[in-house]
Amino acid sequence: MSQADRWLLPDGIEELLPPQAIALETQRRILLDQFHQWGYELIMPPQVEFLESLLTGVGHDLELQTFKVTDQLTGRMMGVSADITPQVARIDAHSWPVNGASRLCYCGTVLHTRAASLLSSRSPLQIGAELYGEAGSNADFEIISLMLQSVQAVGLKQVYLDLGHVGVYRALVAAAGLNHEQQRQFSEALLGKDVTAYAELVNKHISASYQAAFAALITLNGEPAVIARAAEIFRDIPGAMAALQDLQALTARIIARYPSLEIYVDLAELRGYDYHTGVVFAAYVAGHGQAIAKGGRYDQTGSVFGRARPATGFSADLKQWVALTGVTSLTADAIFAPLDPSEQLWQAVQKLRGEGKRVISALSSTDSAQTCNCNAQLVNVNGQWVVESISLKGSA
Amino acid sequence: MSQADRWLLPDGIEELLPPQAIALETQRRILLDQFHQWGYELIMPPQVEFLESLLTGVGHDLELQTFKVTDQLTGRMMGVSADITPQVARIDAHSWPVNGASRLCYCGTVLHTRAASLLSSRSPLQIGAELYGEAGSNADFEIISLMLQSVQAVGLKQVYLDLGHVGVYRALVAAAGLNHEQQRQFSEALLGKDVTAYAELVNKHISASYQAAFAALITLNGEPAVIARAAEIFRDIPGAMAALQDLQALTARIIARYPSLEIYVDLAELRGYDYHTGVVFAAYVAGHGQAIAKGGRYDQTGSVFGRARPATGFSADLKQWVALTGVTSLTADAIFAPLDPSEQLWQAVQKLRGEGKRVISALSSTDSAQTCNCNAQLVNVNGQWVVESISLKGSA
Fold first, then answer.
1. How far apart are CA B202 and CA B218, in angstroms?
2. Given pLDDT bands bounded at 50, 70 and 90, which one contains residue A216?
3. Residue ranges of chain B with pLDDT lower than 50?
4. According to the model, what pLDDT value does residue A48 have?
5. How many angstroms separate the CA atoms of A172 and A176, rounded?
6. What average pLDDT is seen over chain A?
7. Does residue A2 surpass a pLDDT of 70?
């Protein structure tokens, strides 16, 4: 690596420079304040944990995404967190056990060995909210509402909502008696939206009585009306109806609260199938193929820590949001303080800063309001330091 | 690892739960706002970089403290950032090059393979400010002032300031003509405050004409008056006088601005000797052996990235500050919203949240203001939702 290349960053690893960093910090505060106003308590899970804590009960994908390092104190393997959600499950189970509903939120950097998709970062700033201890759909509705309000709060436009329910597919799988390996093959075809492979699998493994239901599953996506259509097709499949009724009721409530929101239902959506147990959802913006926020119900995650609790939540990558919302240029409101060692100037400067003003002090005699990008300056008028705005050239 | 142990964290790796996390977030905002008011621009360096970028030009200690992982995309080694300061040097040199003074600040998690000291975290939340492009002591004075104001802003009490200048020792070493290995031995003895080993080294390696100066060095610590004493002793050593005059002038300005601050000068302080080039400083609080913030001048760090610039800065571990300032219990100001699916209640709830109030919505019929730890609730009075505070038991 030559000297000239030493500033290159690995692919998918970003740094945020002043305009972006300020935009991100602003969004971060808006969102954490909103979470607080909804009753969510902030937690800061650690960036590394023992692998057994970090990867127990999570999917194989996350294991592949996790950087491993050796703990020099114990010789044991640790992982750098690639997803904060399982860490929150551990915290709900042990570190911060609450009886009844527990609302938790977080914002922290995670690292991925490989980008989750072509458009993804390998170092997302993951922000999210999780609601533990409540199995009913009121909790899913609260989390989906909070996700939508969050997207709105940072100014993302043209948002639509993707809704699914893994219970429908699980009911079909149970009814058809698919074994573990068959399930894996079906899930893979559905996740890849591979219609041909899926049709072959249906022909090969599904008995005549469930062929129609399985064939229909991959077509059941579109407007919320597909839920009613699915209820017709799956009416004899135990478990499927409960999931559909659940989804139907939730969808109706979302429509009532957000009448202008575009909703896309997909009953073959299996994202996070390894750990999701109910409703799954994601938010998209027009013209951007990747979800901007996603979540769902995952009722068993805490069980590996000895406390299984119903849970639902959502998360997003704040770096992605900043990239999508764009950045306004740095505002130049700043006051220049000249080179003057007097206590009186220092007091004047500190008073202004205490009022929230930005004051930049000269460091050398060549510094000026212009070189320091200031649009005002402190000047000494009859022994008093006063702020004088600098008129723009030609405005006089 | 049994199931019951899965929640254990590695030594020195902490998680922050609600009371601490909120306290930390509060301090974080106070400090980033203050940095902004002083003209410092926020940046967010990446959490991993190629090792060549991360460890070029830094000391051997940092190399040992850095976790290494393989970049699966290139097969090259990356390091997890153990110190954000060298990353800022890279950014000043390449990503965000500014002519003249550049003020930058940051706040992010770093990881250490081993704790820097017995009391240290292995996952500090490093916050800091760096001032590039200005070699004069005005810059050091600004950074030291910002450090002291930061400590004060979060409410840390009984703070004292440690001051040194590596230029004094460098001048002695140059005058005595010590070779690299001898320098290493002297530095080790001084860093460990090992008076006996140091005396032996002086006897062995230092010629008669410099024996008195070297012997004095390890005793030159205490009140700021030691600087004048040193100027007497080192008056014939080229370079030492310039460093002492620099330190003397800076100390005088600090005393003038902060007359009640306790200042401890130590001319044998070699912390960060590998990269520091001028004034070094640290803040301490009474009763706590470890520095709570530290910094200094490091004028050459950017050279490995092709742009050597004068620089001075400070950093601190916000987790340590939260531990030292303590945490007030969670304030319970929250309004309970009962289980009611009406649009009207939702509007009332959102209006309150928009005003900054915390409103917790019931998720089931068993939820109440009491179970949700609320001290007020929304009640429907003649068709209007109004907030009613809940009187404490026995207060009627």
1. 11
2. very high
3. 1, 393-396
4. 97
5. 6
6. 92
7. no
How many residues can be counted in chain A?
396
A47 touches chain B (CB under 8 A): yes
Residue A308 shares a structural domain with residue A371: no
**Mean pLDDT, range A69-91, rounded to an integer:** 95
Q: Are residues B75 and B172 in the same domain?
A: no
- pLDDT of the residue at A45: 97
Are both B242 and B340 inside the same structural domain? Answer: no
Residue type present at position B351: K
Distance CA B271, CA B146 (A): 20
* Residue positions counted in chain B: 396
Q: Do A74 and B10 touch (CB under 8 A)?
A: yes
Domain harbouring B150, CATH code: 3.30.930.10
For residue B395, the model assigns a pLDDT of: 39
User: E-strand spans in A226-319?
Assistant: 262-266, 279-285, 293-297, 311-317
Q: What's phi and psi for A109, nearest 5 deg?
A: -75, 135
Arithmetic mean of pLDDT, A105-125: 93
- SS3 of A293, please? strand
pLDDT digits (tens, 9 = 90+) for B58-87: 667 889 999 999 999 999 999 999 999 999
With CB atoms and an 8 Å threshold, state whether A46 touches B123: yes
Chain B hits for A32, Cβ within 8 Å? 25
**Which tens digits make up the pLDDT trace of B86-133?**
999 999 998 999 989 999 999 999 999 999 887 789 999 999 999 999
Using the CB atoms, write b or e for B69-107: b if 16+ within 10 Å.
bebeeeeeebbbbbbbbbbbbbbbbbbbeeeebbbbbbb
Domain membership of residue A311 as a residue range = 1-156+288-330
pLDDT of residue A1: 47
Same structural domain, A100 and A209: no
B202-225 core/surface letters (b: 16 or more CB in 10 A; e: else): beebbeeebeebbebbbebbeebe
Contact by Cβ (8 Å): A5, B84: no
Q: Is residue A394 assigned to a domain?
A: no
Q: Give contacts of B 69-108 with A, CB under 8 A.
A: 69, 71-74, 76, 78, 80, 87, 90-91, 93-96, 100-101, 103, 108
Cα dihedral A80, A86, A88, A90, rounded to 10, equals -100
Residue A396 lies in a domain: no
- Residue B331 contacts A where some CB pair is shorter than 8 Å: no
Rounded Cα distance, A45 and A33, in Å:
19
Say whether both A28 and A151 belong to one domain: yes
Residue B49 within a domain: yes
pLDDT tens per residue across span A327-345: 776 566 999 999 998 999 9
pLDDT on residue B392? 54
* ipTM > 0.85, yes or no: yes
Are residues B224 and B308 both part of a single domain?
no
* pLDDT score for B394: 39
Contact A160, A264 (CB under 8 A): yes
Residues B245 and B376 in one domain: no
Whether residue B262 lies inside any domain: the answer is no
Q: In this structure, are residues A135 and A245 in contact, taking their beta carbons and an 8 Å threshold?
A: no
d(CA B209, CA B233): 12
DSSP structure string for B18-69: HHHHHHHHHHHHHHHHHHHHTTPEE-B--SEEEHHHHHTTS-HHHHHH--EE
pLDDT tens-digit series, residues B15-44: 999 989 999 999 999 999 999 999 999 999
CA distance B234 to B173: 12
Q: Tell whether A9 and A49 lie within a shared domain.
A: yes
